[in-house]
Amino acid sequence: MRKNYHFILQGKGGVGKTTVSTFITQYVKDYLKQDYLAIDTDQVNASFASFKGLNVEQVNLMEENRITDKGWEMLANRLLNTDKSNIIIDNGASSFVPLMNYAYDNDLFNILTAEEHSYEGTVFIHTVIAGGEGLSHTLAGLNTICYNFINSNTRLIVWINNYLGKIETEDKKITDYPEYKNNENKILGVVRIPTYKGDLFKKDLSEMLTNHKTFEEVKTDTSVFIMSRSRFTRMQKEMFAELDKVDFIFEEE
Hints:
Blueprint: E1 2-8, H1 17-31, E2 37-40, E3 57-58, E4 62-63, E5 66-67, H2 69-81, E6 86-90, H3 96-106, H4 108-112, E7 120-130, H5 135-149, E8 154-161, H6 178-181, E9 187-192, H7 199-210, H8 215-219, H9 226-244
Parallel strand pairs: 1-6, 1-7, 2-3, 2-6, 7-8, 8-9
Antiparallel strand pairs: 4-5
């Protein structure tokens, strides 16, 4: 058996971590047709758990309004004991540093992938690079993750989110940024969230996410305009095509 742990991590809030979590889960559920475990550890917003169509579990990390080691222990126990091959964990900005500290102090990622378990385990850290004012913060987060955690059993997937501002132009790609260049040997793949020139695409996507719906739900909702459903079909197809580039990270055997 193989276990693929997908941690969506970034210290900057509001850059699309939950969006990435939902896209990964939808790809596994609706495209690969695989069973999975989805977990929301965000104690502030719990946005991932609000997507009822994805059956997300919420793990409470807090006691008396503070994140505790007991919460991380409960999460680790849940991860180690699941029988699912793909486990998606959405972690909020407020718990980014506590998780990093717990994972580092307790060697969490190496324990999840230890050879003595009766499965082959790999940790995939998905981190979002966002444009606009969040660019420097998210690039710094990439550096932090690579410095502390990336090894042979922990691999990095970089997500490009241009909705908050352009990251890549004709003259500059993500591979040209020093933070990427310095860590290129640790980066397994790059996934780009598709962007569109028309405002209607952006409006449709925003409404879908705000209403905590999946592509499949809005595509089959007859109360949604036909043209919107057509745009959702295209967005889903193109997002899944991006994930096809790294489909090997979801293998069950």
